[in-house]
């Protein structure tokens, strides 16, 4: 077990290293670097040169990368060009808010998706299965920003029940204090996830229904409701829980769009604004944090799997 | 890449429209619409919304490169009175007035020396008098640290000052490296000067003694480094004692991490009475997206906000709710850069008649009216046509190249071009008067590539409209939309046949291409080899006229320069969008929308109309 | 935006590999028996007819602007769905934009599947350090959420049709790669692959001759979902400001452009392209789902 963990951990480190290289390279594809974007059309060649020198952009890419890594080891993520504050401070302000949004949406999605998927599986091939499956696919097929727009039109305009903007509080407490403002963003984000999870639940339940133990239980004459809850549901839920870890990137992607739509003050919005302004240190910082979260998520998933299913250990 | 914001804002805007439709309207105020007038009441808080991507992030009067967010300068000018500034007097822009520290500058010695008298009554908030020493302090710091100063370019301030002389406590004299045009020098050079509290800031390290350290280069560098260090700590602006010594009408009451700035009147302000604040508090509220601003504006959370141009069609809805909709005209020119060195179309760009034909195909009026919903004005030359100024001559206000497809066609056919299958081709190569011109070969097509800023519906539409109308004269324009960064990064000055010199035209003017200092001289834009002359326009006469604007002793020079370049088309003139379409609570008066994008909250006041105020406030609660 | 889970839950791949004519017929029967799948096919056919045959029936000017006819409301002077902010007929624009969306989606989906399949097959066949290296690369790419990557890309790239296809394929190939790699891992220990190795058969041959064909069921199902996702990506890219250069358009760019005018109540600029995207993506998903069910053997018993 320890050997497996150490191996997985080392793999995770390698992945993080690759993530930083990918992002670093991508950012440096910008023609002329960020200097033009930061200094604007009025920046003189001297100022651009000076900026590039101070920020190290006049050195070779590998050298710049090594410098970045060196600072990274000491926990220094650099300073935002636009916001005049350390990237680390910005991240510690914003990350918890994104995690809150993601967490609430996921919980809501699971609460809806599990019974939905179960129902579909049980009614397999019947009209209600078709209807629910069709609905799930329609939800899946709706771009999050279109869905958000429909939500705003329906519930903030035609029926002005909820505000169209997320709460703007500085702390998590303040955000939670304005729960009505959270409803549209959370629901919008949850919708997309429901579609995926309910499909997963449906096939997981169907798979389980064909397993030996279910047949045995049926043969023993146990009630189908009891079988459902005791065997099938439980066995389908365990992998669903571990799946959440793997879904983190998709969840973060959704959060980015939702945050931009509803002006939710999370990391996605920070990232979006940084991209508009070529704020490289912020872009790098956010991507790294998101990457770390994702890698940790999948690491946890693997560990969970290993704990639940000893066979994995020998294979991996 | 404004797209997301503007789209999301639009989404929220729909909310506005629909809410209005569902009967949630407010009674119109009982006071007449207007920018001024009314019965003033003292006190009150005004909240102004700042545009996205312009979060205030700098307080030190010497701006570092990259900290040029439009409002930094405007906000710190409330704390540190500028020596000279573009101020509005009776609707005209002038260099000094009650709100500036400097009085009328005097030029002598054949315009090679300028004497700057300072207002005498001014004191810092700790009681110390504002003197020439404070100006000298600024000059010493800037001279020793010019590369770290955002406003520096080679040959201008402080390079053009040979000697900085303190005449007495309230007079300084600058000995210049040559004769300058007094108007240009005051408007574009002296306006950079600031008085800074030498008695409080001139220390090499925190807690160290205050002395005359700025008078040596080494000392000036150390002092500058210390002040910059403080300025790089946005979170501490509100509490840092350094920024508490001010001489402006306002002082800082708070500067949040997100850039929200709160100003309260500086009760120790000793400037002219007309500059003393009426309000109790002014809040500058930054928004990361225009949509959130729109939402807050609708709910009455800001008194002075903005709407996207596309909402101009909904103007009446805001007026019904007690707001005035007032586009804020910018002191700017908007244009598409021609690349005269383009490997691909350099010879064509160099032909005036081709540029004239193309200008005839830009329907600025229709673009301003339909695409910008009336919030843009035509650009007719380098000098802004609106607002009126002494820089504009009668001739410049006249459009020399009105929209006309037939004129464009005849210009081309008169010079040996013939349209075959929709594309104009040169059939008479050569350098004669009725021939295509130097470097243009037989059968060469008139095809051009335009790099254009992406992310704005208005810009995308303008470029599509342009492409469509150019095609009517056989000019085939392909538009490559790129993020602003890439457009700026790709359209750098280049030489023909260089690998990066394949672009023909470039546009980055969604928010105006170029904001001028007070004097709209184009030395950075249109003189040969200038740093922002991205298309390498080069014309001997233009160069000498531009030099004259800087050096000649009178106003005639700027008129000649403006008229000549309006005709010569160094760039393609395009509609100049408003700086923003402002929406201001109608009972907030005295708001001058200074085209150089500064403001004077000291002049703002609320007017008596309790009923109207109540209505608006009630709106905020709903 | 990823279909990893939905598609990885296919238990019937192995059986599909040994498909016999009668099994193929049965597969077809199951597919046509699936009402959702059938409605997906019909929906797709209708959309294709609208986009490709529509312009023949309803020819419109989609290149030259006409500012004098901008923003006409639906029904005005023969414009069934009104006009855009530049005076283009909305119905006609939906047709040509649909062609672009479908073409980009199809090309990107196929490219992603092709590249991902080969990548996954190679990794799975060779195993060991080759597999480890290749999979760490996919892990790294997966660790950066697609939208974050696209936001950065949108800030640096000049879009064109080809570039859009490459970008979308660039974020979408990961899921088929992982799927096929899993297949390959299990197949490489099969007797015929083992036998081939012993006879000295080349790696490439084994990959293309046995592993890819054996994973074909998974690949086809995944490809359908990939196309659906790719069309979604086209709209997300437009939302981020990255779309096909005008005067061409795709449904995503039409939707994004329309949102600007929402406050003016120009609903006809928003809902038609939005609904078109939902319908076409759903159609592909219905078909993919039907295909998957059809390939599943175990549950049919």
UniProtKB/TrEMBL annotation, chain A:
Coiled coil: none annotated. The chain crosses the membrane at residues 12-30, 99-119, 131-159, 179-197, 236-262, 282-308. Keywords: Cell membrane, Membrane, Transmembrane, Transmembrane helix, Transport. It is found in: Cell membrane. It holds the Pfam family BPD_transp_1. Its main location: membrane. It is a multi-pass membrane protein. Belongs to the binding-protein-dependent transport system permease family. This is ABC transporter permease. It comes from Streptomyces endophyticus.
Automatic annotation (TrEMBL), chain B:
SUPFAM superfamilies: Periplasmic binding protein-like II. InterPro entries: Peptide/Ni-bd, SBP_5, SBP_5_dom. Keywords: Signal, Transport. Pfam families: SBP_bac_5. Residues 105-529 form the Solute-binding protein family domain. Its main location: other. It comes from the Bacteria. It is found in: Cell envelope. Residues 1-27 form the signal peptide. The keyword Signal applies. Belongs to the bacterial solute-binding protein 5 family. PANTHER family: PERIPLASMIC BINDING COMPONENT OF ABC TRANSPORTER, PERIPLASMIC OLIGOPEPTIDE-BINDING PROTEIN-RELATED. This is Peptide ABC transporter substrate-binding protein. It comes from Streptomyces endophyticus. The lineage of its organism: Bacteria, Bacillati, Actinomycetota, Actinomycetes, Kitasatosporales.
From TrEMBL, chain C:
InterPro entries: BP-dependent_transpt_permease, MetI-like, MetI-like_sf, OppC_N. It is found in: Cell membrane. Residues 98-288 form the ABC transmembrane type-1 domain. Coiled coil: none annotated. Keywords: Cell membrane, Membrane, Transmembrane, Transmembrane helix, Transport. The keyword Transmembrane applies. The chain crosses the membrane at residues 36-57, 104-128, 140-157, 163-180, 265-288. The keyword Iron does not apply. It is a multi-pass membrane protein. CDD domains: TM_PBP2. Belongs to the binding-protein-dependent transport system permease family. PANTHER family: D,D-DIPEPTIDE TRANSPORT SYSTEM PERMEASE PROTEIN DDPC-RELATED, OLIGOPEPTIDE TRANSPORT SYSTEM PERMEASE PROTEIN APPC. This is ABC transporter permease. It comes from Streptomyces endophyticus.
């Amino acid at each position: 077990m320890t050997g497996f963990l150490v191996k997985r951990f080392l793999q995770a480190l390698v992945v993080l290293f690759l993530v930083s290289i990918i992002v670093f390279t991508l950012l440096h594809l910008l023609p002329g670097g960020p200097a033009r974007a930061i200094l604007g059309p009025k920046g003189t060649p001297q100022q651009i040169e000076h900026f590039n020198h101070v920020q190290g952009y006049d050195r070779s890419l590998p050298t710049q990368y090594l410098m970045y890594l060196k600072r990274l080891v000491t926990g220094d993520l650099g300073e935002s060009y636009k916001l005049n504050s350390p990237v680390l401070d910005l991240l510690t302000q914003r990350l918890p808010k994104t995690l809150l949004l993601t967490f609430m949406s996921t919980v809501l999605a699971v609460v809806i998706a599990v019974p939905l998927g179960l129902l579909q599986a049980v009614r397999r091939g019947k009209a209600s299965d078709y209807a629910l499956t069709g609905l799930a696919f329609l939800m899946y097929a709706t771009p999050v920003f279109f869905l958000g727009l429909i939500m705003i039109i329906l519930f903030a305009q035609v029926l002005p029940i909820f505000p169209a903007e997320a709460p703007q509080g500085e702390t998590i407490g303040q955000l939670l204090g304005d729960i009505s403002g959270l409803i549209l963003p959370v629901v919008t984000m949850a919708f997309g996830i429901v579609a995926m999870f309910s499909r997963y639940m449906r096939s997981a339940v169907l798979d389980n229904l064909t397993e030996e133990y279910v047949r045995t239980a049926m043969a023993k004459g146990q009630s189908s409701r009891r079988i459902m809850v005791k065997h099938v549901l439980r066995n389908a839920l365990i992998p669903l829980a571990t799946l959440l870890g793997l879904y983190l990137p998709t969840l973060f992607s959704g959060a980015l769009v939702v945050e931009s739509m509803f002006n939710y003050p999370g990391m996605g919005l920070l990232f979006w604004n940084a991209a508009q302004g070529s704020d490289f240190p912020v872009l790098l910082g956010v991507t790294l944090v998101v990457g770390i979260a994702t890698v940790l998520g999948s690491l946890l998933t693997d560990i969970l799997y290993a704990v639940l299913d000893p066979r994995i250990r020998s294979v991996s | 890449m404004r797209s997301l914001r503007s789209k999301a804002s639009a989404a929220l805007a729909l909310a506005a429209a629909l809410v209005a439709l569902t009967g949630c309207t407010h009674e119109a105020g009982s006071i007449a619409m207007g920018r001024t007038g009314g019965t003033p009441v003292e006190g009150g808080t005004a909240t102004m919304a700042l545009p996205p991507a312009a979060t205030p992030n700098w307080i030190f009067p010497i701006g570092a490169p990259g900290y040029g967010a439009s409002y930094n300068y405007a906000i710190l000018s409330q704390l540190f009175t500028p020596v000279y500034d573009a101020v509005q007097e009776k609707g005209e822009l002038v260099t000094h007035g009650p709100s500036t520290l400097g009085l009328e500058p005097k030029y002598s010695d054949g315009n090679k020396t300028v004497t700057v008298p300072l207002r005498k009554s001014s004191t810092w908030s700790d009681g110390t008098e504002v003197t020439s020493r404070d100006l000298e302090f600024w000059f010493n710091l800037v001279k020793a640290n010019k590369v770290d100063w955002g406003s520096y370019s080679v040959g201008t301030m402080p390079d053009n000052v040979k000697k900085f002389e303190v005449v007495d406590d309230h007079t300084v004299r600058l000995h210049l490296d040559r004769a300058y045009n007094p108007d240009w020098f005051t408007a574009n050079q002296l306006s950079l000067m600031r008085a800074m509290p030498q008695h409080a800031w001139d220390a090499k390290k925190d807690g160290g003694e205050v002395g005359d350290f700025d008078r040596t280069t080494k000392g000036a560098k150390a002092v500058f480094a210390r002040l910059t260090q403080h300025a790089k700590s946005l979170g501490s602006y509100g509490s840092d004692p350094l920024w508490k010594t001010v001489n402006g009408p306002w002082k800082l009451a708070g500067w949040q991490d997100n850039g929200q700035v709160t100003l309260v009147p500086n009760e120790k302000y000793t400037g002219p009475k007309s500059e003393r604040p009426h309000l109790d508090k002014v809040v500058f509220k930054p928004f990361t997206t225009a949509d959130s601003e729109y939402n807050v504006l609708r709910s009455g959370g800001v008194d002075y906000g903005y709407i996207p141009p596309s909402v101009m069609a909904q103007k009446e809805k805001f007026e019904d709710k007690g707001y005035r909709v007032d586009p804020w005209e910018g002191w700017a020119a908007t244009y598409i850069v021609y690349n005269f060195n383009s490997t691909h179309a350099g010879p064509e760009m160099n032909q005036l008649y081709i540029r004239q034909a193309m200008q005839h195909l830009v329907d600025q009026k229709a673009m301003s009216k339909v695409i910008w919903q009336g919030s843009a004005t035509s650009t007719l030359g380098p000098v802004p046509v609106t607002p009126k100024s002494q820089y504009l001559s009668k001739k410049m206000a006249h459009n020399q190249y009105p929209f006309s497809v037939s004129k464009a066609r005849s210009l081309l056919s008169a010079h040996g071009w013939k349209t075959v299958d929709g594309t104009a081709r040169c059939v008479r190569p050569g350098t004669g008067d009725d021939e295509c011109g130097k470097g243009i070969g037989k059968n060469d097509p008139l095809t051009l590539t335009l790099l254009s800023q992406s992310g704005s519906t208005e810009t995308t539409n303008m470029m599509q409209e342009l492409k469509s109308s150019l095609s009517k004269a056989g000019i085939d324009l392909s538009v490559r939309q790129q993020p602003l960064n890439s457009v700026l990064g790709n359209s750098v000055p280049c030489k023909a046949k260089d690998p990066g010199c394949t672009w023909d035209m470039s546009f980055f003017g969604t928010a105006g291409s170029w904001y001028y200092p007070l004097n709209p001289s184009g030395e950075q834009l249109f003189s040969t080899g200038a740093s922002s002359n991205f298309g390498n326009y080069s014309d001997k006469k233009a160069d000498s006229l531009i030099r004259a604007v800087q050096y000649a002793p009178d106003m005639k020079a700027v008129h000649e320069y403006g008229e000549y370049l309006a005709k010569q088309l160094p760039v393609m003139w395009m509609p100049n969008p408003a700086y923003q379409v402002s929406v201001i609570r109608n009972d907030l008066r005295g708001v001058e929308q200074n085209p150089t994008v500064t403001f004077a909250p000291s002049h703002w006041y609320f007017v008596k109309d309790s009923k109207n105020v109540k209505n608006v406030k009630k709106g905020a609660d709903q | 935006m990823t279909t990893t889970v939905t598609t990885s839950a296919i238990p019937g791949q192995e059986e599909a590999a040994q498909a016999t004519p009668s099994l193929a017929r049965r597969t077809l029967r199951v597919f046509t028996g699936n009402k959702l799948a059938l409605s997906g096919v019909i929906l797709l056919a209708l959309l294709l007819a609208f986009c490709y045959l529509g312009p023949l029936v309803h020819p419109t000017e989609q290149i030259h602007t006409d500012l004098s006819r901008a923003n006409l409301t639906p029904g005005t002077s023969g414009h069934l769905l009104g006009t855009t902010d530049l005076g283009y007929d909305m119905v006609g624009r939906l047709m040509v934009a649909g062609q672009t969306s479908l073409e980009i989606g199809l090309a990107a989906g196929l490219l992603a599947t092709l590249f991902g399949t080969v990548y996954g097959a190679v990794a799975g066949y060779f195993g060991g350090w080759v597999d480890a290296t290749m999979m760490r690369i996919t892990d790294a790419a997966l660790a950066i959420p697609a939208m974050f990557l696209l936001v950065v890309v949108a800030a640096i790239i000049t879009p064109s049709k080809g570039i859009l296809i490459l970008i979308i394929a660039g974020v979408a190939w990961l899921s088929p790669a992982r799927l096929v790699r899993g297949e390959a891992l299990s197949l490489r220990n099969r007797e015929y692959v083992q036998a081939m190795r012993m006879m000295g058969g080349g790696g490439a041959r084994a990959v293309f001759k046995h592993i890819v064909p054996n994973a074909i069921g998974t690949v086809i199902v995944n490809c359908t979902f990939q196309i659906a996702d790719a069309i979604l990506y086209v709209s997300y890219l437009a939302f981020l400001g990255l779309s096909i250069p005008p005067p061409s358009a795709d449904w995503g760019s039409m939707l994004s452009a329309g949102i600007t005018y929402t406050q003016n109540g120009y609903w006809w600029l928003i809902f038609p392209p939005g609904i078109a995207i939902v319908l076409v993506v759903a159609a592909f998903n219905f078909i993919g789902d039907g295909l998957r069910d059809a390939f599943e053997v175990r549950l049919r018993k």
